[in-house]
Amino acid sequence: MTTDLSALKDQIERESHHFKALQNEIGKVIVGQSAVIERVLVGLLADGHILLEGVPGLAKTLTFRTLAQTLSARFSRIQFTPDLLPADVVGTTIFNPQSGQFTVKQGPVFANLLLADEINRAPAKVQSALLEAMQERQVTVGDQTFALPEPFLVMATQNPIEQEGTYNLPEAQVDRFMLKVRVDYPTREEEGLIIDRMTRGETPSASAVVQAQDLMRLRSLVPQIYLDEKVKGYILDLVFATRDPEKAKLAKLRPLIAYGASPRASLCLAQASRAYAFLRGRSYVTPDDVKTIGYDVLRHRVAPSYEAEAEDLSSEALLRMLFDGVPVP
Fold first, then answer.
1. N or C: which end of the chain has fewer CB within 10 A?
2. How far apart are CA 237 and CA 226, in angstroms?
3. Between 3.40.30.10, 3.40.50.300, 3.30.499.10, 3.30.70.260, what CATH number should domain 2-219 receive?
4. Which CATH number fits domain 225-325: 3.40.190.10, 2.60.40.10, 3.40.50.720, 1.10.8.80?
5. DSSP of 207-260, one letter per residue?
6. What pTM does this model have?
7. CA separation (Å) from 192 to 32, 37, 169, 196?
8. Which ranges of the chain have pLDDT less than 70?
């Protein structure tokens, strides 16, 4: 057993350089935003969909497009609008008058990396069609069901400040995203570098450094990352504290949380923590890994109550209270 753990440790340390190469290549195009890039790579490694939220102009779309350039994988982008139809996403059947038969024309969802730009502009029917693809990794067109290619990852963006012409994502779909990542403004120094880099007349680009088959092999290592019982207990303590704050000695949270996180939160937190440890070149998960990635996993799964909103407390503030109140092993 000791030999197996030692071999795994050596393999993790050896293989993690692939993602360091990805980070370096993405950094040739994207200035700063190291935490965002790291979360995107966590989702890629943990096989979890990612939702980026931020005001326009923060390079959310460019980040995903650059990631696609660094991978030898098929990339599709859909600009979501209120008049979009499910067929525009998954495809449709077309009648061939020469053969007298209907044939299936596959939509842009048949890709390895799907960028759903401004996903909250899509009506309910489109969101429902995308939901099947995200959860079941398959698409139904007419009376036929098609498996999506592997790997398959949905990376979505949404604008949190503009409400006109938007549709709030249903909780069932938001919960399908492993991570919800907040994108903030760059620093003054970073923005100066952005001006220098993007106004030279030649747009920087990234090259492919990881093959799709390499990614699938690296993903298979993630479940082998050691998760100690105490760390697993810490994950459960955090999730259960969102459902029953009094039992966790956080009674002040009871009136502030409308509903807590589901079991999918526990699964995603464990999986994302393992992936985060992998990026750090470690074969084991620490409580700090859980705390670092926990905000992105729980941000969209802990809903503030009306009382919390009246006190101007966001889910971010509630999570700070949660992580400060739950004992770390």
1. N
2. 19
3. 3.40.50.300
4. 1.10.8.80
5. ---EEHHHHHHHHTTGGGSB--HHHHHHHHHHHHHHH-TTTTT-GGGGGGEEE-
6. 0.85
7. 11, 20, 35, 6
8. 1-5, 161-167, 170, 201
